[in-house]
């Protein structure tokens, strides 16, 4: 399998910046959350982008998407990464050796899935689709959307988002990382944001418990789901963002185009 650097060789990249791990926690049995403090004042990123992640002594370069909003970086100089456990050297380092105080190098890249509207940009409706750890850039976008909604209430001349719908698929309920935060966003903005969760393999009592409070479906995201979302959101003013395994993205791109979404309005990020 090709490396992250090889797969993204043609993508835009900034210069490297140093960062320090200031917190590490478990999002699930297979995902670690890192909060990093960046030392460079000129370090920036846009919602949906990723970083090259370089660890001293580890030959391979990792590629992890930010899950936090650029607003957080502006406010306190930190960003968040969610790293799924794998045999990939940088991911393994995060899960076995990383600790508070660890130093890493970061370089922002990615120009395929970006959410950076300007004050005079159209108020696009958003259909956000995430599979597994593909939630990372999608959650960053969702955080940015919520930031705009909050600012609109207090500041004139701020971008006003349209309606946002999230379709989020995971194998089991515990792998729906950020679910509680997403649910809180929906509660705070019930007319602007909605979510629907899909569980593909889990068949235990936790699903029934989750169904008491969330919109949960026990299957994969289907073509009918996409069609229904497009109808609700109006495909004439709709921007679609999809992140997950390559086969899922290839399939959904084809379906979305078949439903009348222009190719330029479908932004994707494939993760292996």
UniProtKB/TrEMBL annotation:
- Coiled-coil annotated residue ranges, if any: none
CDD domains the record matches? FNR_like
Q: Which GO terms describe its cellular component?
A: mitochondrion
Residue spans crossing the bilayer: none
User: Mind listing the GO molecular function terms for this protein?
Assistant: oxidoreductase activity
Q: Name one Pfam family in it.
A: NAD_binding_1
Q: Which SUPFAM superfamilies match?
A: Ferredoxin reductase-like, C-terminal NADP-linked domain, Riboflavin synthase domain-like
Determine the domain of life of the protein's source.
Eukaryota
- Where's the FAD-binding FR-type domain? 14-117
Q: Which UniProt keywords apply?
A: NAD, Oxidoreductase
Can you name this protein? Oxidoreductase NAD-binding domain-containing protein 1
Q: Which organism is it from?
A: Stichopus japonicus
């Amino acid at each position: 399998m090709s490396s992250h650097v090889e797969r993204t060789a043609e993508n835009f990249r900034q210069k490297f910046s140093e960062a320090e791990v200031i917190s590490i926690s478990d999002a699930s049995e297979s995902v670690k959350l890192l909060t990093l403090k960046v030392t460079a004042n000129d370090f920036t990123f846009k919602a949906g982008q990723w970083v090259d992640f370089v660890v001293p002594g580890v030959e391979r370069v990792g590629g992890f998407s930010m899950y936090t909003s650029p607003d957080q970086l502006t406010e306190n100089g930190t960003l968040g990464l969610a790293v799924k456990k794998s045999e990939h050297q940088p991911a393994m380092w995060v899960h076995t050796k990383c600790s508070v105080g660890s130093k890493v190098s970061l370089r922002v890249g990615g120009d395929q899935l970006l959410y950076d509207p300007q004050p005079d940009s159209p108020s696009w409706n958003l259909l956000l689709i995430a599979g597994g750890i593909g939630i990372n850039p999608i959650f960053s976008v969702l955080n940015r959307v919520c930031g705009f909604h909050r600012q609109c209430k207090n500041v004139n001349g701020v971008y006003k988002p349209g309606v946002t719908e999230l379709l989020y698929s995971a194998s089991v309920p515990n792998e729906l990382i950020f679910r509680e935060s997403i649910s809180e966003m929906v509660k705070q903005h019930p007319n602007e944001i909605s979510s629907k969760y899909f569980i593909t393999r889990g068949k235990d009592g936790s699903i029934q418990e989750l169904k008491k409070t969330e919109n949960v479906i026990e299957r994969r995201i289907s073509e009918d789901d996409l069609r229904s979302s497009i109808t609700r959101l109006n495909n004439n003013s709709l921007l679609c963002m999809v992140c997950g395994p390559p086969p899922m993205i290839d399939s959904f791109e084809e379906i979305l185009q078949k439903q009348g979404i222009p190719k330029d309005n479908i932004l994707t990020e494939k993760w292996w």
